[in-house]
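Q: I'm writing up a methods section and want to include an example of the input and output format. Could you take the sequence below and give the corresponding predicted structure tokens, formatted cleanly so I can copy it straight into the document?
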Amino acid sequence: MVAVGDSAKIELKYKRVGGRQGYYTTKQATVTTNDASIGNFQLAFKVRGYSEPDSTHPIVLSEKSLTFNEENRSKKVKIKVKNVSDEKLKMRLISVPHGFLDVDISGKRIKPGKTRDIKVKIDKHFEGVNFKKSFTIELNDSLRTRYTIPVVLEKKEVVRAPAKAKTGTRTKQNFPANRGDSDK
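A: Here is the clean output for your methods example:
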């Protein structure tokens, strides 16, 4: 049961059928509601299954996520994208959080076996110290394969050693005064 204004997760599990490579299967879930304006409805999902997990990916990314901190936040980071399929692919930026990230994707096609770069940097107008965001790219393959890359900007606490006193100078030390009550 889900309360008004609340949400719930739906998990559908798929099983490989008969060891076939590239098979399609569908799953359905029925959502039952007491809201007369919506009524009951079904969610249907269609997937293509493979026994080898890597065989479903037309590209390989050098980084699955990116982490920036105060030291590298102004630098551009490159993600290498290698086309491991047998067709020319083109990447398209589907979503990027405006005001947080600058993502540069080359408009050129990636030939089979070749590599291109995605260049990512923190937006120069972002003044905050941390965030957790992501951007999504889509390929022009027959499945319109999408990849979402998480990006984190974290504020690292820098621990610095106390400054050394200059040679020949005295420093005041904060020790309690001896009041004559020490053990003899």
